[in-house]
Design brief:
heterodimer; A: about 220 residues; mainly alpha; MetI-like fold; about 80% helix; B: about 290 residues; alpha/beta; D-Maltodextrin-Binding Protein, domain 2; 13 strands
C-alpha cells in the first residue's frame, strides 16, 4: 500500500498525546463555562433589572467583550499582567480568566433576553398569588428562563470548546497544537500526515461537541411542560 | 435611539481613554514592570526557563514519544548543564514565532532559543547573544545538470518564491538570470520537478532538507547571498546572563560543540554530504 501517513497517528504515544491535548481544551472550556454560568446568571438578572446605571455598566462591559478579540484579551492577561503589574500567572489560568470574562458577558446577555422574553402576565400572576419577589423568581420565572436558555447556553459551550485553540498563543498546548507538533515532527518522513492528523482532530471535536448538543435536545424535551 | 447613541459614544470614549493609558504606560516602562531573573536568581531557583519551538523540525520539535528535540534544544540542555549542573534543570517553554519577544519582555522565560534570526528591529526589543547558527540561500538543481556556481545560471531560469530573500537577492545582483516566480513553495518545487526551471533557490536549510527527500536533486550551491545569523536572546538589559551565554558560546568552540550538535540533530535531516560549516557557527565567529 502507498504511504498514506496514517501510521503517524500510531507512532509512539502520538494518539495519547492528542487525547491529552483534547482534555486540556475540554478542561479549559468546562471550567470557564462553570464560571460563566454562575456569573452570567447574576449579570443577566442585573441587566434585566430596572436600575439604569447598573444596566449601563453591564452594557459597556458586554460591548467591550464583543469588540475586543479574545486573542487581545489573552495577551493582555498573560503578558500584560506580567509586564506591567508583575503578576506571573500560568497560561491555563490566564485562559480561564479570559474565557470566563467573555463567557460571563455572553451568558449575561442570553439570560437577560431569556428573562425579558417571559411574558409580563407570568410576573403579574405570581404577584397576585401573593408570592414574594424571591419566590416568584425561584418558582416561576427562573425555571422557565432556564428552559429557554438551554439551547443557546449549549451553543456557547461548544463555541468555547472550539475557541480554546487560541490559548496556544499563550503557551497552552491543547489539541490543535499537539496536532501541529506531530505533523511537524514527521514532516520529512511523512509529509502527508497533516490530512490524517487534522482529520482526527476534526473527529475528536465532533465526538465531544455532538453529545453535548444531543444532551441539550434531550434535556429540552424533558423540561417541556 | 438617542440613548443608544449616547451609550455608544461613552463606550468609545472609555475605550480611547483605556488605549491611551496603555500607550503611555508602555513608553515609561523601562526599569519597572517585569524584570528578567538575574544569573543569581536562576542559580538560587535551580531551574532555567528556556523558550523553544515545539513545531519546527529539526530546530525544536516534539518527537513521537512527547520528548522535545532539535538543534536549539540540544544547546538549551547544554546551557542548563553548564550553568546548573544538570540537563534536567531546564524547563522548556513552547513559544510561537509571533510571541517570542513578548515572552522575554514579560520575563516569562530567561532565554529564547527558538531559531531566532537577528534583525535590527528585533535587536531594539531584546538583547541577542553571539550567534550559534547561520542561514543563507541555497540552490538546488537536478543531478544531470547540476549548478555548482551561481554564474552557471546566467541565461538560465531560476525558480524562486515571491517575497523571499532569494527573489530579492537574485533580482538585484544577477540581472542575467531569468526568474520564474511562484506564490507558494509547493508550486515552486513542482515546477522544479517538472523541469520548468533549471534550479530553485530559497533558504539553504529548506532546500537541503528537500533535496534529501527527492532523489535526483542536489544542492549544488549550499551558501550564497546575504548571511542571516541565529542567536540566543535575553531580555533587554539582562547583561549578566547575556555575558554568561557569550562566554559559554566561546568556551564551547574548544570542543566544537555545535559541530557535534549538527551531527546529532541536523545531519539526519540534511544528509551527511552537507558541509556543517555552511550552517554552524562556532564561538560566535562568522
Amino acid at each position: 500500500m502507498q504511504d498514506s501517513g496514517i501510521q503517524v497517528l500510531f507512532q509512539g504515544i502520538n494518539f495519547v498525546r492528542l487525547l491529552e491535548g483534547l482534555w486540556v481544551s475540554l478542561k479549559l472550556a468546562l471550567v470557564s463555562m462553570a464560571f460563566s454560568m454562575v456569573l452570567g446568571f447574576l449579570m443577566g438578572i442585573l441587566m434585566a433589572g430596572r436600575n439604569r446605571i447598573v444596566g449601563f455598566v453591564c452594557r459597556v462591559y458586554l460591548e467591550i467583550v464583543r469588540i475586543m478579540p479574545q486573542l487581545v484579551l489573552l495577551f493582555l492577561v498573560y503578558f500584560g499582567a506580567a509586564k506591567h503589574l508583575g503578576i506571573d500567572i500560568s497560561g491555563e489560568l490566564a485562559a480561564v480568566i479570559v474565557f470566563s470574562f467573555w463567557g460571563t458577558a455572553e451568558m449575561g446577555d442570553l439570560v437577560r433576553s431569556a428573562l425579558i422574553s417571559i411574558p409580563k402576565h407570568q410576573y403579574e400572576s405570581g404577584y397576585s398569588l401573593g408570592l414574594s419577589r424571591m419566590q416568584l423568581y425561584r418558582h416561576i420565572i427562573l425555571p422557565q428562563t432556564f428552559r429557554r436558555l438551554l439551547p443557546s447556553a449549549v451553543n456557547l459551550l461548544t463555541r468555547m470548546i472550539k475557541t480554546t485553540s487560541l490559548a496556544v498563543l499563550i503557551g497552552v498546548v491543547e489539541v490543535v497544537k499537539v496536532g501541529k507538533q506531530i505533523i511537524d515532527a514527521s514532516r520529512y518522513e511523512n509529509p502527508k500526515a497533516a490530512l490524517w492528523i487534522y482529520g482526527t482532530i476534526f473527529i475528536l471535536y465532533f465526538a465531544v461537541c455532538f453529545p453535548i448538543s444531543k444532551l441539550s435536545t434531550v434535556l429540552e424535551k424533558k423540561l417541556q411542560v | 435611539m438617542k440613548k443608544r447613541l449616547l451609550g455608544m459614544v461613552l463606550v468609545f470614549m472609555l475605550f480611547a481613554a483605556a488605549l491611551s493609558a496603555c500607550g503611555s504606560s508602555k513608553t515609561e516602562q523601562t526599569g519597572g514592570g517585569a524584570t528578567a531573573r538575574s544569573l543569581e536568581d536562576i542559580k538560587t531557583a535551580g531551574t532555567i526557563r528556556i523558550g523553544v519551538f515545539s513545531d519546527k523540525n529539526p530546530f525544536g520539535y516534539v518527537d513521537a514519544n512527547g520528548e522535545v528535540q532539535g538543534y536549539d534544544v540540544y544547546f538549551a540542555k547544554r546551557i542548563a548543564k553548564d550553568l546548573l549542573g544538570s540537563e534536567d534543570t531546564v524547563e522548556f517553554v513552547y513559544v510561537e514565532a509571533a510571541n517570542r519577544v513578548e515572552y522575554l519582555q514579560s520575563a516569562k522565560v530567561d532565554i529564547i532559543l527558538a531559531n531566532f534570526t537577528v534583525t535590527g528591529e528585533r535587536a531594539e526589543k531584546v538583547d541577542f547573544a553571539l550567534p550559534y547558527m547561520k542561514v543563507a540561500l541555497g540552490v538546488v538543481s537536478p543531478d544531470d545538470a547540476l549548478i555548482t556556481e551561481v554564474e552557471q545560471l546566467n541565461g538560465k531560469t531560476l525558480i524562486v518564491v515571491k517575497g523571499t530573500t532569494a527573489e530579492a537577492y537574485f533580482g538585484e545582483n544577477y540581472p542575467d538570470i531569468s526568474l520564474l516566480k511562484f506564490d507558494e513553495y509547493q508550486e515552486a518545487y513542482d515546477a522544479l520537478l517538472d523541469g520548468r526551471g533549471d534550479a530553485f533557490s530559497t533558504d539553504n536549510t529548506e532546500v537541503l532538507a528537500w533535496a534529501l527527500q527527492n532523489q535526483g536533486f542536489t544542492v549544488g550551491v549550499e551558501s550564497v547571498g546575504s548571511l542571516d545569523v541565529i542567536a540566543p536572546a535575553v531580555q533587554k538589559g539582562n547583561t549578566e546572563l547575556l555575558n554568561w551565554i557569550n562566554e559559554e558560546i566561546k568556551a564551547l568552540a574548544e570542543e566544537q560543540f555545535f559541530h557535534k550538535n549538527f551531527e546529532e540533530t541536523l545531519e539526519p535531516v540534511y544528509g551527511s554530504s552537507v558541509n556543517a560549516d555552511n550552517l554552524v557557527v562556532e564561538g560566535g565567529e562568522l
